[in-house]
Amino acid sequence: MELKVIKNDAPEVASERAVKPPVDERSLVHKQMLRGPFWQKIPAYAAVGESEVLDHRWQAKHSITNVPKLLAALGSLVGPDFIADATAGFDKAPMSVRVSPYLLSLIDWEHPYEDPIRRQFIPLGSRLLPDHPKLGLDSLHERADSPVDGLTHRYVDKALFLALDTCPVYCRFCTRSYAVGIDTDEVEKFHVKAHADRWQRAFSYIASRPELEDIVVSGGDAYQLRAEQITEIGEALLAIENVRRIRYATKGPAVMPQKILTDDAWLDAITAVVEHGRKLHKEVVIHTHFNHPNEITGITESAMNRLFERGITVRNQAVLQRGVNDSDETMKLLVKRLGHVNVHPYYVYQHDLVKGVEDLRTTLQTALDIERYVRGATAGFNTPTFVVDAPGGGGKRDAHSYEHYDRRTGISVYAAPSVKPGAYFLYYDPIDTLEPDYQRRWSIPAEQEHMVQDALAAARARLR
Ligand SMILES: *Cc1c(COP(=O)(O)O)cnc(C)c1O
Ligand code: SF4
User: What is the CATH number of the domain that holds 382?
Assistant: First the structure.
């Protein structure tokens, strides 16, 4: 193997060659996770002990789904102005709201407007921005690519199976707001029988397609599946010869790690599928969704350790969000802390075009800049790929691989030759981030069309 030599500034003196002085241990903040009874700062949980807080059933039962419950939990921590703002936010939000007590206790209630977890889960009327004119529900065309209800077959060798439509919490920015969160009651309404039929149709389709090797089991959220359902789905998929890889997708570890510590039946069910898969030489893993380093606490670490001890691989898919993780340092800290608890940072998604959350989207340029900063901060296999899930069904594209990007109009254009040959896919930066002239152009429909046509022409010119 040949060594690369950096010619011009090779160090001359030995002491200079000793390169890096040791870093002060206290600066390694990724290791400093929140511990202790932090939830007791919330008035309603002031007297709640660890055994209750670690019980996933307690967490689910006490989840916040409306403003009166929010007020009951927080008491005097927030003023009437904030409550009025939240009431307006809940009224206008296209998505159901559900926040676990654990998440609620991670919010800094002295600064709720700025808090990255509040921003993701609790809508405020005063922060809402008008939607982008190019935005539609189901912007990823998941339903258009569905051969069977709840199964999206977009890429050649992999498919997305939506097993159910509820989640342990509801995220304001959810891409599937067209499908999830339909029941806002705290009581789960599982229609197992109805599921069984639909699931069977999905499994039959997968078995009929020899090219399908990789199945994402999502929803909704695999956390909401009962242990028997985890087994049923896992075993049905493992039994299909062409299936080689299965991922259970769940936001659970990020929003309710307690379940991994106290729901033994659920964890044993997952573990059994992973182990059976291993014997069949098929990979079964968990994909999860942490967005901010504050979401990783001592409780998370214990939960991730439990998965690691069982040999279960966990990968993370984060969403880039304005005011949440759109700074170099926050993203680097997230990546380092994930690595520390043995979660592989797999993707950072450019925020999809979703209704009612323009305040959370960033420009594509933000993603490009943060990627440049994060790469090199840690192991390459722990460095996420920044992707744009191309609106219109183009699938995920490396953020840097645009055919064209006009920072003034905010339009970027992608191609996806292996997914939809010959087609172009457009992403749009949020309008409020553009210069005033361009904001004005976006308010005129004929101008919108011009900007889109210009962008497409520039992309075509580039592609010969
Ligand atoms: C994200 C996604 C997958 C999995 O894609 P990877 O890039 O392999 O993570 C599969 N199907 C659909 C429809 C998806 O959105
Ligand atoms: S957990 Fe996932 S599917 Fe559920 S609301 Fe959040 S982003 Fe959407």
Answer: 3.20.20.70
User: 3-state class of 217 per DSSP?
Assistant: strand
Strand partners, 412: 405, 427
Q: 276 is written with which tokens? A: 């059976």
Q: Whose CA is nearest to atom 8 of ligand 2?
A: 174
The number of distinct structural domains making up the chain is: 1
- Amino acid occupying residue 278: R
Q: Of the candidates 366, 322, 371, 364, which has an alpha carbon nearest to the alpha carbon of residue 345? A: 371
Q: Is 415 in the pocket of ligand 2 (CB under 6 A)?
A: no
Task: Tell whether ligand 2 has an atom less than 6 A from the beta carbon of residue 170.
Answer: yes
Cβ 318 vs Cβ 291: under 8 Å: yes
Q: Residue 44, SS3?
A: helix
pLDDT of residue 205: 98
Domain holding 305, by residue range, is: 143-401
In a domain, 393, yes or no: yes
Mutate to test the pocket of ligand 2, among 63, 137, 171 (most ligand atoms within 8 A of CB): 171
Bridge partners, 396 (sequence order): 389
pLDDT tens-digit map of 67-98: 999 999 999 999 999 999 999 999 988 888 89
Pocket test for ligand 1, best of 141, 142, 158, 213 (most atoms within 8 A of CB): 158
In a domain, 428, yes or no: no
Residue 396 CA: which ligand is closest?
A: 1
Q: How many A from CA of 71 to the centre of ligand 1? A: 39
pTM, 2 dp? 0.93
What's the farthest any 2 CA atoms get from each other in the chain? 74
Other CB atoms within a 10 A radius of the CB of residue 181 amount to: 21
CB-CB contact of 261 with 302 (8 Å): yes
